[in-house]
């Protein structure tokens, strides 16, 4: 198993121990370009994936959406991915990245990745004020940066409109 270029194991029921062994074996697949692991429970085996990522120098797409990573593992993952020159697409939707500090770290790491074209962080309760701060830079640097699902985007837009209205009312007092 040293010549894999595309691994797609979504919603497969492999237990954490099995995922850890899979991640260890990926180290020998230096030509791997696409790794789709969405909808798996990989939270506890994520350190094994993070350890292997630097060896995957050709990796250009990673999808770990719906894998319950949490904020700490997500930061570790983005840090590891930031060492890859060819990473273009990262999908990390619905992974319970709820801490504002974690979101900030991820945004900053994304800004440092030169070849990113797509990042999805939908369903992670992205802080609207933090998004407002980073939005311009992220959208200018990364063609498709999507922090919200359609429903979340509507709520954030409505919240921004409401805040703007309240600020205008305060100014007119």
Descriptive report:
- The structure is a single chain.
- This protein has 173 residues and is of the alpha/beta class.
- It has one domain: Leucine-rich repeat, LRR (right-handed beta-alpha superhelix), CATH 3.80.10.10.
- 45% of the residues lie in helices and 10% in strands.
- The chain has 6 helices and 6 strands.
- It has helices spanning 16-26, 46-52, 70-81, 100-111, 128-141, 150-171, and strands at residues 6-8, 34-36, 61-63, 89-91, 118-120, 144-146.
- The protein has a 6-stranded parallel beta sheet with strand order 1-2-3-4-5-6, with no helix packed on it.
- β4 (89-91), α4 (100-111) and β5 form a beta-alpha-beta unit.
- α1 runs parallel beside α2 (46-52) and α4 (100-111) packs parallel to α5 (128-141).
- It is elongated.
- The mean pLDDT is 89.
CATH architecture tag = Alpha-Beta Horseshoe
The ordered string of helix (H) and strand (E) elements is EHEHEHEHEHEH
Specify the overall morphology: elongated
Q: Write out the strand line-up for the largest beta sheet, numbering strands in chain order.
A: 1-2-3-4-5-6
| Low-pLDDT residue intervals, each spanning 5 or more residues | none
What is the CATH superfamily? Ribonuclease Inhibitor
CATH topology: Leucine-rich repeat, LRR (right-handed beta-alpha superhelix)
Number of domains: 1
* Secondary-structure content class: alpha/beta
Helix tally equals 6
Helicity range of the residues? 40-55%
Mean pLDDT: 89
Report the count of strand segments: 6
Q: How many angstroms separate the termini?
A: 70 Å
Radius of gyration: 18 Å
Using the coordinates above, name the CATH class. Answer: Alpha Beta
Strand portion: 5-15%
Give the biggest sheet.
6 strands, parallel
